């Protein structure tokens, strides 16, 4: 997919055969000081994103997917957050540059879209004023030129009549329109990396489909690297090239999106996929569920973090911390049983979700107590 | 009551909200719900889907008698609720219960679970203390908790657990119909599956009817028997689930179905072949 980048794209310098690496995150660990004590919100995260590629980060609430994004952008309050590891972007380690330097990256070379477009836009300024401010911070130009630039950006995101909309306040726009404005603002300085944190969660399905298509079109047009954070596996399937599944602050599985969805290896990924109702789910059977619930970060289990909820767990799992292990090129999983192929053997054919639910549904209910 | 008579019916329900300016003059009218009719059979789950602002929640609130319709009737066991006496109205409220979207804001944080459930029964006029106790214990056990949980406060529970308590609260009055307004939308997938299974089990055991209001078509497909699709205040299509997914008739329904992102590879392939006529954009990658 990444090789289909048009050679005459905006940043045509890249060789389409070998897309440029935009960001490399290694060993990223973020500790947060909270009133109840210190927690490690994300631990030892490794990933990279190439130009024109979309990496999906999925997981349920509290898994650390947003903290990962905020750490890359260094958005957490540094009085309470402590980062370690490296975030290499443009040959620089973002975690070690000064705050003022970091501010030049944010909204310029790296930008971010948030879930709730209403609270991310300033209600007392017009859309145009906010867009122009963003442009002028990063690119010195006349106000007139910036205004034209803002209108073009709005037009590019599919907003009808951008000349009129630019004078509107955020409350005058619909949810989908506001998200388009956020995208226009994020893309206005042609970032090399876009981080989208649940960009469509607050939107209706038809609007979601439009926004996802828009993000997809724009990353192709600009050869932009994208990190898409979501809890929705359907969204991942639609737009991502590769995906990283997170659970309780750790990456549990990573690889090409089709591989992961067609042939999930980690018991958590299997459970997540099986418990998502799809259009071919058997309605006469109870949904397979993941028993229990996610432990809090204050009592992270010593061994495998998923062991307590895992139908395949043994004593060895509960005692030993699991390592993220490569099982094929670009494909890794944090589960020794999956690495040894034992999960497939116990669960039956991996792709046959209906006849062999990967999680025991007899334990479906009441497990949360 | 005859066999197969609907439990609850909406007949030409209409709700118009009047917008007023700051000094109280009428500026315009919004037709939130416009002539919506459907019926729910005993033991059936009726799914009501549509996008935000289509009027599905307003319809739910009218059925719950939280707001009055501008015109049209809500008919419970063949009798319009507008003709109910005060006592009948109260009994209607206990027979038609509601589960809300946000389990965090729908439970009073300063009350213990037992007291929250008890309050519901006191309001319903059940004077016998032992009877209240019996119902509360049986409801809390039904959703997978024990008596010991009754003395706890809502903050001691997780989101999914609180939603179970919301279900227990709906069950204490021994309802016939439960209106679930986006009841699982705020939950994570693995927890959502637990709650959906619980709702299905309770329905089987008690022969309850559900009105399941949701924007999530995959979830509605899993729980509902029939689906009504709302768009801009009107019911644009109604069909049994399989029929609706296989042969959607209305253009808006087709658009809605095409927009569902598919996580499951086989589903994506099936959707791509099924909607072959509508220029395959998503799904194919």
From TrEMBL, chain A:
Keyword tRNA processing: no
Molecular function GO terms recorded: ATP binding
InterPro entries assigned: AAA+_ATPase, ABC_Ni/Peptide_Import, ABC_transporter-like_ATP-bd, ABC_transporter-like_CS, Oligopep_ABC_C, P-loop_NTPase
Keywords: ATP-binding, Cell membrane, Membrane, Nucleotide-binding, Transport
Record domain ABC transporter: where: 23-273
Basic and acidic residues bias spans: 360-369
Annotated membrane topology: Peripheral membrane protein
Coiled-coil intervals, chain numbering: none
UniProt region (Disordered), positions on chain: 346-369
Domain of life: Bacteria
Subcellular location: Cell membrane
Family: Belongs to the ABC transporter superfamily.
Protein's name in the database: ABC transporter ATP-binding protein
Organism for this UniProt entry: Brevibacterium gallinarum
TrEMBL record, chain B:
Keywords per UniProt: ATP-binding, Nucleotide-binding, Transport
Pfam name, any one: ABC_tran
Alphabetized InterPro entries for the sequence: AAA+_ATPase (IPR003593), ABC_transp_ATP-bind (IPR050319), ABC_transporter-like_ATP-bd (IPR003439), ABC_transporter-like_CS (IPR017871), P-loop_NTPase (IPR027417)
GO MF: ATP binding
Residue intervals of the ABC transporter domain: 8-257
SUPFAM superfamilies for the chain: P-loop containing nucleoside triphosphate hydrolases
Family designation: Belongs to the ABC transporter superfamily.
Protein name: ABC transporter ATP-binding protein
Organism: Brevibacterium gallinarum
